[in-house]
Design a protein that fits this description.
By secondary structure, the chain is α+β, with helices and mostly antiparallel strands. Helices cover 28% and strands 17% of the residues. It has a 6-stranded mixed beta sheet with strand order 6-5-7-11-12-16, sandwiched between helices. Strands 18-19-20-23-29-24 form a 6-stranded antiparallel beta sheet. Strands 1-2-3-4 form a 4-stranded antiparallel beta sheet. Strand 1 and strand 2 form a beta hairpin.
Length: 775
């Protein structure tokens, strides 16, 4: 009876409240599968494991954990695990006022700064590493930009001269000499990149001469380094450890040896930023020629960590940027966990301040206002002033490109208007005598051909046949302008026989679709482009399976993410893209039924091609996964032959255009209603089209599985790419994938999110979607 009362109470309030920006709204169900409420989990109030607290706007509810469905219980368990994980390596950021914290009275810019940088690639008895020296040299460069004197930076690497190679005795001697000369108020920074391990409660860093048979005596004990730092006169002591990086040994590892685990807090006055947590490895990438952790730390020191863009780069911003991006990069590339760990307490302080940033930001904001008002000359002038302070700033360069593109479009619009006027005046001054009779004379055996003059210019509004999704805003697209001379009636021609409609593959007429689509020429290419509104539907049937496509009309949109978008990637440069021709995109991801029909392989057979045979969702309407890029090309080629039309993977620009469907925000709607991701998927894929579609009727563009695109990947391609119908770089090593998946969190499902994989990659969250290209 008590459970019935709770259910009734929740149902009564299920439609009350607004969706808050920081809440993950989802539908909650009972053990029996009955809908309870649409609400968000209240993590702040969560304390007792047997009770779940929910909130919808100002309304708050609680329900016994045992009364929730199995899927909801899994969701709560995962959220609680994430919360505990965040507290394990993010606790530091929330305790800035601890009494034993290092005082923020230190002026980092004016303090005398010392650095010891150690990078080891070559070992006598351990496996070599590739990019640790690159990491250390790049860190050294950034430190000099932060005011470290080169004479106070002691670099010890495998590529150094004999006096500075990373032998244990040389590293220890350098540490002793530097700490001996430090004075009160000084800064000491240490960075170690190489192999690491732990024996008992002590952590070690492997120097070049470390011997596997005698690790404790031949490796550098980090605990002893911390003890020496504690006794030094320096005011601020910061240690960065990037280890262990693929920590394998040529010889059998001694008992008890493993990668460096989470280290207990160092002595008071020291902060430690470590590249990974308990038992985790630290990963390198040959494309960037750095370890991910060091690469992100380097970029953070460059100023990219300035999250609020106020020109003040703080210690906290550097640590948080490095931590967050390393977690994301390693999950994206290797599908592994690497969680940098920060321990020790300090009050935040400014590492670097750009005194010109406030002024350049003001100029940028003025430029945006001028652009919105259509005053492109004033906008461009303001951006040019901003670029005097920051000539390579991505945000300002992107705004300048946007303004120039809009100037060009405005001039082209004026030119077309003048050309249209000239043509109309020319036609009006020379009337065609054939148009004098009000009714044309019909010749024997001829049919009457009455042609309606076309509109003088194409409309920039979508046709009325477009039916936007109920959640989406009305769509506005900038269409390419065209002007054609007024067509005159031509002499009637003898009627030509209309070829019969070929029933295989079948086509079905859908609402909003031009009936002429049913008239296919012999080559199978129907009149695919004529007279459709965005989201018009077309169905082809092959082997009894429906391939339902949605129309994406010609138009212009802004690809990429704005500089201010949270969770934005470094490779999401915003730019205008114009499609001179529309295209048809498959309404869903390619299903397992479609794949078996064309490729002859089931999901189980795809799984057998890898070392992992785990079932992440299996059934005719589930998306196919564990398919590599070349297999997707083969699928498209075979389907093209069967349908007698050109079927391909979408270009990256086509994919994002279709995903956004006229929207400009982070997502194309309320994400939890549209996407299966780690926060609602129950750790598996789901049948396609079980979430809500976007405004053009396309499902699962966010979440479920990543989708291969045709493009090679380049982080800089769109800086110089064509603005019309871009197809991606000509060469590369990795292919693009878009859309997010069931295995990653919400931010990885953003419309602008980009991933890349080697073409032979296949895993349990990577599938495909196809498009029909217009000839």
């Amino acid at each position: 009876m008590r459970y019935f009362t709770i259910t009734t109470f929740l149902l009564f309030f299920s439609t009350i409240g607004n969706v808050l920006a920081n809440e993950v709204m989802r539908e909650w169900k009972s053990q029996s599968g009955e809908f309870l409420i649409e609400a968000a989990w209240d993590s702040e109030k969560d304390a007792a494991p047997e009770t779940v607290f929910l909130k919808n706007g100002k309304r708050k509810f609680k329900i016994p954990f045992a009364n929730l469905s199995q899927n909801d219980q899994k969701y709560i368990k995962e959220e609680r695990r994430k919360k505990a994980e965040r507290s394990s390596y993010g606790e530091y950021f929330e305790n800035e006022e601890e009494t034993d914290a290092i005082s923020s009275e230190i002026s980092f810019s004016s303090a005398t700064k010392h650095a010891i940088l150690v990078g080891v690639t070559d070992y006598e008895t351990l496996n070599p590493l590739q990019y640790t020296v690159n990491d250390i040299l790049a860190i050294k460069k950034r430190l000099t930009q932060l005011g470290f004197s080169e004479s106070n930076i002691h670099t010890i690497t495998s590529k150094s001269e004999a006096a500075n190679i990373p032998l244990k005795r040389i590293v220890e001697k350098t540490i002793d000499e530097v700490l001996e000369m430090t004075k009160k108020g000084d800064v000491v920074f240490m960075a170690f990149a190489g192999h690491g391990f732990q024996i008992g409660s002590k952590s070690y860093f492997a120097t070049q001469d470390t011997q596997t048979e005698n690790l404790e005596k031949t490796a550098l004990c980090l605990n002893q380094v911390y003890e020496k730092l504690e006794k030094s006169n320096a005011h601020f002591k910061w240690v960065v450890v990037d280890a262990c990086r693929r920590s394998t040994f040529r010889e059998r590892s001694p008992s008890g040896v493993r990668a460096i685990q989470k280290i207990d807090s160092p002595p008071q006055g020291i902060v430690l930023l470590q590249s990974c947590g308990d038992g985790e490895a630290s990963y390198e990438d040959p494309n960037i020629k750095h370890g991910y952790f060091s690469y992100n730390f380097i970029n953070a020191l460059d100023g990219k960590a300035d999250a609020d863009d106020d020109g003040k780069l703080t210690f906290m911003e550097v640590c948080k940027y490095t931590t967050d991006l390393t977690v994301e990069d390693v999950r994206r590339k290797y599908h592994m966990s690497q969680r940098p760990y920060l321990t020790g307490k300090v009050t935040d302080f400014i590492i670097k301040e750009d005194i010109h940033r406030p002024k350049s930001n003001e100029l940028y904001e003025n430029a945006v206002k001028f652009r919105e008002k259509g005053d492109y000359d004033a906008a461009l002038k303001s951006i040019k002033e901003a670029l005097k302070f920051h000539p390579r700033d991505e945000k300002y360069l992107m705004e300048r490109k946007t303004i120039v593109q809009m100037q060009v479009m405005e001039k082209e619009k004026d030119r077309l208007a003048l050309e249209k006027k000239r043509l109309e005046e020319e036609i009006a001054s020379k009337p065609d005598p054939q148009l004098t009779p009000s009714v044309p004379t019909l010749q024997p055996g001829h049919q009457s051909i009455l042609q309606t003059p076309p509109p003088s210019a194409q409309s920039t509004q979508l046709p009325q046949s477009a039916q936007p999704n109920e959640l989406a805003q009305p769509l506005q697209l900038v269409q390419p302008h065209s002007v054609e001379p007024t067509q005159l009636a031509q002499p009637p021609q003898s009627p030509q026989p209309i070829p019969p409609v070929q029933p295989t593959p079948q086509m079905m007429l859908q609402p909003g679709m031009n009936p002429s689509l049913l008239k296919q020429p012999h080559d199978g290419t129907s009149q695919l482009q004529a007279g459709h509104g965005a989201g018009a539907s077309m169905v082809k049937i092959l082997d009894g399976i429906e391939y339902r496509f949605r129309w994406c009309p010609p138009g212009t949109f802004i690809m990429g993410s704005p500089y201010t978008e949270s969770d934005r990637g470094r490779d999401e440069l915003q730019h205008h893209v114009t499609f001179t021709k529309g295209f048809w995109i498959l309404e869903t991801e390619v299903t397992q039924a479609m794949w078996k029909s064309i490729m002859g392989r089931t999901q189980s057979e795809q799984n057998a091609l890898t070392n992992y045979e785990s079932d992440c969702g299996k059934g005719a309407q589930y998306p196919i996964y564990r398919v590599n890029w070349q297999e997707c090309q083969d699928f498209c080629a075979r389907l093209s032959e069967s349908l007698s039309i050109q079927v391909t993977l979408p270009t990256e620009a086509q994919w994002e255009y279709a995903c956004r469907a006229g929207t400009t925000e982070k997502y194309a709607g309320i994400l939890d209603m549209m996407a299966w991701n780690s926060e609602n998927s129950g750790s598996r894929t789901h049948p396609v089209a079980t979430k809500r579609p976007n405004a053009w009727g396309i499902y699962d563009m966010h979440g479920n599985v990543w989708e291969w695109c045709s493009d090679w990947y380049s982080s800089t391609y769109y800086e110089e790419s064509p603005t019309s119908d871009p197809t991606g770089p000509e060469t590369g090593s990795h292919r693009v994938a878009r859309g997010g998946s069931w295995i990653l969190n919400m931010k990885n499902s953003r419309s602008a999110k980009r991933l890349n994989y080697a073409p032979d990659a296949r895993f349990n969250a990577l599938g495909l979607r196809i498009v029909i290209q217009i000839p």
